[in-house]
């Protein structure tokens, strides 16, 4: 049974994970959806309405959901706000979330005030609307079965259509007890201060203002009424216990103070508070529990937790509806009382910032303590992508699948499809073309009626619905009504059609899939007529006119006397309920659903599911009729079709792997399997293969595959059954290969300190060789130690010893067997077995540990064997596949199932050879049984078809019992009659050849023999426990001849098994006489057969050594006795590496490996290309930077040159202008000087006349 919890508080989630050793994960988008598909318990730190956890929970598919919402909204000791508070709405939200997971049962636990709360009818109505029926509700008091009072309302709701058995609620146990075991503990000093009653607390507890329900009047009487002795009935422990006096005084006056104390004479006041650990013991627990040191948090956890008895009552009653095994509530509660923790046998073990309540005979593993410390460090905020496990602590979420074994899942078997439907479904598109719906109108003389049709529908199809009674005219899309239907002349001459209730939605492609008569109007045909109610219930009344040829109306319901009642559900909610004609088929229902739910489904087809599987389209309502005498409606579930699910090649690869696994498990050859799988996948459709491989029963899958091979004319080879022990049955990976035992290189091992000590208590060092007056422990093999031990001399006055590991040990030298710890060259811890030889004047001491640390329990080793012929086929399959639980179930009938301490070593045999589960005729396991119940269990053995063989610790049969074999044709009834005539019979025994015998103790064997075989003297008893093999006997030596030879040589032995014509196995209590032993004229070879435990020259526990390949075939003759021949240089310790996972070699795996190699090669090329691209980008960026710098330098140079040219031009122009100005001034000066000179011209003479 697996549990998954959801808790919003990080601190409470951490405490739950630590108490129940459950894995803790924080809800996130990266949480795998298959994280819960294993056998581990989990708790998710998230809100119950967080959508991140839905996919994982729905993939897990819980059978039972338990709801325990916060109690203050429903408690009379609080505000009782109910659904008017945020916490009160959590109950309703939890029910709404649970409906999506579709569990078989809802178990609800709430305070007693919920039973009378005015919001309770709303919760009951919500359960009904969510598909659950409340089949049990009652307020039960924990005081009936335990010490404290704790009234709780308990309810069981069953999903209406869950395929479970009808529950018969068993009664709540009531035990009239007034005295109980004292639950008070010897608290550590660090916790005693938490139980001290303060003055403020005492004042509030004794105040009459807060004693609402108290009869006492004075403060002293009120306080005394709240003090209880630890062995009497106690009041309820609230979550605010110890801090309720700090609440608002007005609230306390209204509700009252509910605190109480325990009488304790060791404290000053004579009373104190209960510690949360004591409260837990008073309520009752059967497993460890973590109590934080925070007193307020601890009381909150204890006060809010569901009592174990309440949880057992709900779960015990609900499980009877899920399993065939009946759970007896009275027996369950009695078992709880016997297993519950007691204060005298329990104590508080400190761990982290709290304590763990454990029993005195319990020890916590270091892994759990370290993981708990890590969890308590992160309890306020766990990393989002991490998971906490009790074994490994915090780990990455991606590596969780590497540390846990997934639980096998079987796919739901799809309904069988025909070959035509298979080919059709393979070619269906993943999406459908969407067409809008356009409005049309029927125009009559006095009224107009609208209708809707698909945009891609031809006009004649629309007219055919009314049997062409209306003519159709189309208009443009700019008009609100694009199709106008007017009555034809024949229709006008008829009476005015009457209004009828119906809904019509015309989609040509969908209607053509119906089995319709093309000569008849669609609405007149039975396929549409019988399911028209569905359309009406969804869309309401729509008027459609009736013509003379159209007299069948959609809403004409089928009479109840002719039809069958059908309940149609969609999305877990009732959609329609009514009567359908028995000849109606699933195809028309699916098509009408597609039309009716078109606004939601967008034209997708609905699959109809009934009786747990998808129904083919041709299935009729009559075939789904229940065979029960009580009338019940036929329930149909409408599920929208799904497309996708991965590529077809990937699905084919999955089917190839499943088929190959089935054939190989049967023992078929690998080559034949590979060829057959490829042929089947190529010739058979994928749907049929999925239907075969998803069958839950293995035998059904094999039978279907064999039938498929016959259809394909594939010759099936016969499976060779094993005839000898050297041939193993089953798949190749199930055959165990005998590993070659490697010699131990003792130079690679280092002894662990503090195991070997000197006489003064100091650590004895490890030395590499034996030297005179050396001190320490030297590790050698038997060959190296033989010359030293042969002398048998003391070599040192201090502590000196040799640890010898090997086969041969000298018997004349005293030694001590020891299993000692050491580390190998890689730093890994291992255990070796050897003998310790003392060679010093002082003794090397061995650390004995603390023998009283864990009390040892006395038990008996035994082998349990079951035979196939004793059990029916179905029961034998259960015994093969669930051997441990099956044995406990058989012993449960005699109340002896708890006597089994441990079971291991399952062995399947066909005769004497190993066999696969399908070929096994016997199964044997080994177990340890409590010594107190072993005699009683042994008496029942054989008669209950479980054959027990008591064994010694070495594995040999126990010598305390002898067997009286029943000769002749003896059956089990005759054996029972024979055992009834004798006393002290220790069970029925079955031999290897099928013979039956009765087991008796040694002291009762003779008396039983005389009763069963009165005419024969009882055989002699020989108690020797040493085995010897005698070889080179004369040919044909008999048992009497060996007995006579032994008497002649004064050797007490008993021959019991012939190993050949010249060899016998004998047992004796001592070795053979020394010297030459001859049988007449033949010398004999007598060898001791060592028991299996004596060969402890190999590693007892720890990693194995790797085989070293020899360099050559020829051995070096000079290294035979060289002590340095095996020396190797010291190597630095290497970190331990995890073992490489075993891979299965096969055609599918080879293809996967090749694909992985190609993908990895492409990935490496892409990585190299990405690196080159990054380098190119960097080089381009660097070039851009250099170009920018160069451009800036050129720009600065040009700018400087332009400024220089400008300054030169300015200077030259200024100088030129200045020179020009000076020249002009000089010229003007010269002109001025010329003008200032007085040079006048003389007048002409008068005598000078002009000549003309």
Estimate what percentage of residues fall within beta strands. 15-25%
- Tally of DSSP β-strands: 50
The low-confidence runs, each spanning 5 or more residues with pLDDT under 50, are 409-435, 491-523, 525-557, 1109-1114, 1131-1144, 1246-1252
Q: What is the tally of helical segments?
A: 34
| Main sheet attributes: strand count, strand direction, barrel closure | 7 strands, mixed
Distance between the termini: 161 Å
Structural class: alpha+beta
Mean pLDDT: 78
Evaluate the radius of gyration. Answer: 48 Å
Percent helix range? 25-40%
Q: What is the molecular shape? A: extended
Structure description:
By secondary structure, the protein is α+β, with helices and mostly antiparallel strands. 31% of the residues lie in helices and 21% in strands. Strands 28, 30, 31, 32, 33, 34 and 35 form a seven-stranded mixed β-sheet that branches. A five-stranded mixed β-sheet has the order 1-3-2-14-15. Strand 16 (437-443) and strand 17 (448-454) form a beta hairpin. The longest helix has 90 residues, at 1147-1236. The radius of gyration is 48 Å and the shape is extended. The N and C termini lie far apart (161 Å). The model is unreliable at 409-435, 491-523, 525-557, 1109-1114, 1131-1144 and 1246-1252 (pLDDT under 50). One of its GO terms (biological process) is methylation. Keywords: Methyltransferase, Transferase. GO terms for molecular function: methyltransferase activity. InterPro entries: C5_MeTfrase, SAM-dependent_MTases_sf.
């Amino acid at each position: 049974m697996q549990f998954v919890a959801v808790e919003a508080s990080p601190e409470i989630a951490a405490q739950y994970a630590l108490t129940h050793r459950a894995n803790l994960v924080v809800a996130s988008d990266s949480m795998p959806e298959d994280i819960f598909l294993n056998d581990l318990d989990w708790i998710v730190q998230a809100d119950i309405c967080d959508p991140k956890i839905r996919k994982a929970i729905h993939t897990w598919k819980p059978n039972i959901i338990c709801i325990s919402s916060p109690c203050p909204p429903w408690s009379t000791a609080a505000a009782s706000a109910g659904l008017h508070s945020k916490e009160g709405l959590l109950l309703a939200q939890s029910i709404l979330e649970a409906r999506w997971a579709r569990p078989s049962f809802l178990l609800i636990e709430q305070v007693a005030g919920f039973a009378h709360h005015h919001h309770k009818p709303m919760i009951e109505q919500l359960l009904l609307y969510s598909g659950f029926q409340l089949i049990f509700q009652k307020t039960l008091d924990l005081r009936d079965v335990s010490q404290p009072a704790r009234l709780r309302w308990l309810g069981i709701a069953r999903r209406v259509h869950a395929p479970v058995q009808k529950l018969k609620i068993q009664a709540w146990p009531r035990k009239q007890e007034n005295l109980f075991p004292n639950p008070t503990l010897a608290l550590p000093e660090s916790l005693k201060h938490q139980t001290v009653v303060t003055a403020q607390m005492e004042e509030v507890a004794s105040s009459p203002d807060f004693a609402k329900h108290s009869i006492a009047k004075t403060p002293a009487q009120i306080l005394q009424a709240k003090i209880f002795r630890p062995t009497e009935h106690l009041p309820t422990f609230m979550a605010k216990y110890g801090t309720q006096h700090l609440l608002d005084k007005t609230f306390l006056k209204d509700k009252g103070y509910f605190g109480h104390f325990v009488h304790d004479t060791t404290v000053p006041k004579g009373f104190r508070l209960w510690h949360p650990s004591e409260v837990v013991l008073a309520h009752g627990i059967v497993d460890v529990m973590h109590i934080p040191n925070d007193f307020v948090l601890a009381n909150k956890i204890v006060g809010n937790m569901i009592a174990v008895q309440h949880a057992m009552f709900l779960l015990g009653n609900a499980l009877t509806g899920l399993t065939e095994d009946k759970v007896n509530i009275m027996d369950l509660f009695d078992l709880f009382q016997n297993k519950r923790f007691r204060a005298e046998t329990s104590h508080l073990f400190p761990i982290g910032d709290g304590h763990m309540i454990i029993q005195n005979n319990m020890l916590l593993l270091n892994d759990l303590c370290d993981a708990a410390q890590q969890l308590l460090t992160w309890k306020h905020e766990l990393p989002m992508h991490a998971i906490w496990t009790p074994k490994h602590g915090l780990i990455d979420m991606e590596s969780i699948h590497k540390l846990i074994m997934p639980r096998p899942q079987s796919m739901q078997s799809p309904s069988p499809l025909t070959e035509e439907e298979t080919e059709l479904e393979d070619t269906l598109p993943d999406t459908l073309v969407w067409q809008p719906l356009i409005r049309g109108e029927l125009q009559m003389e006095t009224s107009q009626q609208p209708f809707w049709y698909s945009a891609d529908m031809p006009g004649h199809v629309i007219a055919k619905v009314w049997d062409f009674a209306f003519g159709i005219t189309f208009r443009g899309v700019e008009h609100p009504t694009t199709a106008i239907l007017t009555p034809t002349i024949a229709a006008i001459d008829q009476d005015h059609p009457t209004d009828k209730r119906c809904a019509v939605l015309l989609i040509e492609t969908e209607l053509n899939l119906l089995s319709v008569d093309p000569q008849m109007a669609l609405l007149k045909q039975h396929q549409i007529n019988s399911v028209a109610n569905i359309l009406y219930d969804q869309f309401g009344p729509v008027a459609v006119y009736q013509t003379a040829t159209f007299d069948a109306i959609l809403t004409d319901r089928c009479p109840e006397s002719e039809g069958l009642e059908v309940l149609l559900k969609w999305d877990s909610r009732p959609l329609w309920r009514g009567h359908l004609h028995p000849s109606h088929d699933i195809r028309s229902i699916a098509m009408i659903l597609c039309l009716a739910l078109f606004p939601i489904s967008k034209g997708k087809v609905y699959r109809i599911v009934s009786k747990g599987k998808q129904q083919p389209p041709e299935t009729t309502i009559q075939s789904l009729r229940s065979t029960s005498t009580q009338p019940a409606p036929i329930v149909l579930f409408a599920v929208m079709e799904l497309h996708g699910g991965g590529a077809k090649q990937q699905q084919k690869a999955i089917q190839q792997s499943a088929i190959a696994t089935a054939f190989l498990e049967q023992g078929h050859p690998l080559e034949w399997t590979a060829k057959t799988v490829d042929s089947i996948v190529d010739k058979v459709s994928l749907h049929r293969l999925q239907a075969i491989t998803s069958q839950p029963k293995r035998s059904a899958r094999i039978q279907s595959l064999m039938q498929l091979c016959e259809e394909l004319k594939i010759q099936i080879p016969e499976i060779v059954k094993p005839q000898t022990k050297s041939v193993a049955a089953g798949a190749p990976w199930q055959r165990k290969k005998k590993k070659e035992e490697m010699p131990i290189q003792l130079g690679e091992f280092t002894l662990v300190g503090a195991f070997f000590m000197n006489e003064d208590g100091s650590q004895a060092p490890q030395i590499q060789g034996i030297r005179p007056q050396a001190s320490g422990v030297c590790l050698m093999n038997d060959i190296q130690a033989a010359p030293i031990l042969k002398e048998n001399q003391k070599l040192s006055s201090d502590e000196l010893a040799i640890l010898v590991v090997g086969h041969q040990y000298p018997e004349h030298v005293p030694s001590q067997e020891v299993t000692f710890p050491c580390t190998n060259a890689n730093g890994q811890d291992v255990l070796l077995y050897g003998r310790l030889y003392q060679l010093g004047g002082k003794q090397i001491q061995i650390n004995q540990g603390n023998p009283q640390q864990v009390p040892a329990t006395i038990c008996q080793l035994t082998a349990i064997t079951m035979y196939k012929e004793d059990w029916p086929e179905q029961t034998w399959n259960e015994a093969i596949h669930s051997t441990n639980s099956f044995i406990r179930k058989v012993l449960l009938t005699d109340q002896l199932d708890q006597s089994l301490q441990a079971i291991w070593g399952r062995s399947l045999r066909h005769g004497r050879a190993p066999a696969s589960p399908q070929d096994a005729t016997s199964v044997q396991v080994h177990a340890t049984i409590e010594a107190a119940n072993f005699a009683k269990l042994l008496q029942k053995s054989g008669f209950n078809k479980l054959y027990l063989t008591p064994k010694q610790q070495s594995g040999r049969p126990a010598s305390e019992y002898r067997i009286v074999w029943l000769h002749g044709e003896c059956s089990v009834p005759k054996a029972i009659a024979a055992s009834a005539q004798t006393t002290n019979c220790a069970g029925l025994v079955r031999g290897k050849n099928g013979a039956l015998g009765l087991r008796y103790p040694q002291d009762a064997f003779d008396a039983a023999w005389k009763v069963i075989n009165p005419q024969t003297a009882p055989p002699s008893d020989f108690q020797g426990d040493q085995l010897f093999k005698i070889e080179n006997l004369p040919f044909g030596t008999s048992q009497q001849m060996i007995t006579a030879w032994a008497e002649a040589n004064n050797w007490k032995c008993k021959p019991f098994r012939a190993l050949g014509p010249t060899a016998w196995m004998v047992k004796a209590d001592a070795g053979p006489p020394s010297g030459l032993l001859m049988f007449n004229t033949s010398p004999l070879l007598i060898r001791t057969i060592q028991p299996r435990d004596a060969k402890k020259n190999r590693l007892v526990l720890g990693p194995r050594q790797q085989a070293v390949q020899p360099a050559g075939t020829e051995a070096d003759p000079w290294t035979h006795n060289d002590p340095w021949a095996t020396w190797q240089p010291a190597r630095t310790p290497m970190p331990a590496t995890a073992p490489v996972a075993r891979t299965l070699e096969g055609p599918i795996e080879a293809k996967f490996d090749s694909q992985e190699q190609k993908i990895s090669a492409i990935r490496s090329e892409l990585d190299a290309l990405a690196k080159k691209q990054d380098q190119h980008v960097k080089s381009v960026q660097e070039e851009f930077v250099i170009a920018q710098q160069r451009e800036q330098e050129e720009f600065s140079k040009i700018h400087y040159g332009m400024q220089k040219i400008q300054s030169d031009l300015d200077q030259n122009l200024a100088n030129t202008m200045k020179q020009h100005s000076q020249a002009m001034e000089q010229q003007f000066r010269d002109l001025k000087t010329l003008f200032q000179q007085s040079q006048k011209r003389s007048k002409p003479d008068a005598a000078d006349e002009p000549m003309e």
